[in-house]
């Protein structure tokens, strides 16, 4: 454990051992999460990355009177609202965590709305930039470098910005990932009025300064069918330019072009005519920032997420190829499932033939063939032992959609 000497770490197998280690000012390490119950704790930071374990730990923590700082987005995206509801009923706080993009983006959206600026789009950069090196004619991303000798034309958008977008995507380098879409669905669940413009998001490869021109309505030259979109982008830059990897942004509408041009003159990226501006936080500091959410919950009793999240949207899985019965839906690199692509859709009760959320399908086995283009449903999966995640989702669905019978 980083930052602690070995003698300060105690492996504990009982409550008595935990209490003894705490009395000695040691760090208690538990193999059994159920030992968290009835301890002198204020906040549990849930960061296992396991959706079912996270749901179980959060449920126990709230029942024990602890605040919960939820890092595990895989659980938050499926049952976050019911966990937040339970926390409110128990007089504790369930919060997103600064250092992860959903919490940071919620803060940026709140700020814009507080200032009376209509949020046209809100989103994040993917975790890896596209770095174009003109001297070598290469593009690097995700630890890989590919040859792209003609990339300069797309980089400079010589054919016009919208027309240049398709030429910027390189098949050998990933763009938006499953966790990106999961995080954007969480933001939409926490902030009413935001929704995906399309199920797979636009996810353009673009320069930071191009964001206000792209994430505005089509009627004024952008990508969006409607305002209030959540989305992501891949930051396109040269090696000597600042990264945006993992940062968050909002594009806001100006009250008038004169105001927009005035603010743009202060160095804020905007559209040429002054109609839209970019507000952004280009960094996320991972666990370094988490303390802000922990303090907000424990000291102030306030979540850094939404005040009352609702399951407005689910991250689902759509078959990109026909999958045979018996296929195990195992997570691969960056949470991919072979033959499946992620998509964000309005939430439904997970019942009978309804679509099943992406992270409820993780590790399950197909009961029947799933044709290409089909959205994965609960009926496509072999029965499995009930999990905390599924139980909480059913409870949440009853509260939101009514009886499931």
Describe this structure in words.
It is a single chain. The protein has 405 residues and is of the alpha/beta class. It has three domains: 32-99 and 287-300, no CATH class; 102-281, no CATH class; 313-401, Antifreeze-like/N-acetylneuraminic acid synthase C-terminal domain (Type Iii Antifreeze Protein Isoform Hplc 12), CATH 3.90.1210.10. The protein has twelve helices and 16 strands. It has helices spanning 15-23, 51-63, 73-90, 101-114, 151-155, 161-168, 178-190, 211-214, 257-264, 287-300, 358-361, 388-401, and strands spanning 9-12, 27-30, 43-46, 67-70, 94-95, 119-125, 130-133, 138-141, 144-147, 195-196, 205-206, 229-237, 248-253, 276-281, 313-319, 340-346. Strand 4, helix 3 (73-90) and strand 5 (94-95) form a beta-alpha-beta unit. Helix 2 (51-63) runs parallel beside helix 3 (73-90). The protein is globular.
Secondary structure category:
alpha/beta
Estimate the global geometry from the Cα principal axes: globular
* Biggest sheet architecture: 9 strands, mixed
Distance between the termini: 48 Å
Q: How many E strands?
A: 16
| Helical fraction | 25-40%
Tell me the number of helical segments per DSSP (H or I, 4 or more residues long): 12
**Low-pLDDT segments, ≥5 res:** none
Note the run of SSEs as H and E: EHEEHEHEHEEEEHHHEEHEEHEHEEHH
Overall pLDDT: 97
């Amino acid at each position: 454990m980083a930052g602690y000497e070995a003698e300060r770490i105690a492996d504990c197998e009982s409550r008595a051992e935990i209490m003894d280690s705490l009395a000695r000012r040691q760090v208690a390490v538990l193999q059994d999460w159920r030992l968290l119950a009835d301890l002198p704790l204020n906040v549990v930071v849930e960061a296992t990355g396991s959706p079912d374990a996270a749901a179980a730990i959060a449920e126990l923590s709230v029942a024990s009177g602890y605040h919960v700082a939820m890092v595990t987005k895989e659980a938050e995206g499926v049952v976050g609202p019911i966990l937040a509801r339970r926390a409110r009923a128990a007089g504790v706080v369930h919060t997103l965590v600064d250092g992860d993009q959903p919490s940071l983006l919620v803060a940026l959206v709140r700020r814009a709305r507080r200032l009376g600026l209509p949020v046209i789009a809100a989103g994040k950069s993917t975790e890896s930039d596209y770095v174009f090196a003109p001297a070598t004619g290469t593009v690097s991303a995700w630890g890989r470098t590919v040859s792209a000798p003609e990339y300069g034309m797309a980089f400079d958008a010589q054919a016009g910005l919208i027309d240049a977008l398709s030429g910027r995507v390189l098949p050998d380098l990933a763009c938006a990932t499953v966790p990106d879409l999961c995080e954007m669905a969480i933001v939409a669940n926490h902030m009413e009025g935001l929704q995906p413009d399309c199920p797979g998001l636009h996810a353009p490869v673009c320069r930071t300064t191009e964001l206000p021109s792209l994430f505005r309505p089509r009627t004024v030259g952008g990508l969006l069918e409607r305002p209030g979109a959540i989305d992501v982008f891949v930051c396109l830059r040269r090696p000597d330019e600042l990264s945006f990897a993992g940062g968050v942004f909002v594009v806001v509408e100006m009250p008038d072009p004169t105001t927009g041009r005035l603010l743009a003159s202060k160095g804020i990226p905007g559209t040429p005519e002054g109609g839209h501006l970019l507000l952004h936080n280009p960094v996320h500091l991972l666990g370094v920032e988490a303390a802000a959410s922990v303090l907000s919950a424990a000291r102030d009793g306030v979540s850094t997420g939404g005040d009352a999240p609702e399951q407005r949207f689910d991250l689902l899985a759509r078959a990109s190829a026909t999958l045979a019965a018996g296929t195990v839906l195992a997570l691969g690199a960056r949470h991919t499932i072979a033959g499946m692509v992620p998509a964000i859709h309005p939430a439904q009760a997970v019942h009978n033939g309804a679509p099943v959320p992406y992270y409820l399908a993780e590790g399950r086995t197909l009961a029947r063939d799933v044709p290409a283009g089909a959205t994965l449903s609960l009926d496509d999966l072999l029965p499995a032992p009930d999990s905390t995640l599924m139980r909480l989702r059913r409870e949440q669905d009853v509260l939101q959609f009514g009886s499931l019978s």
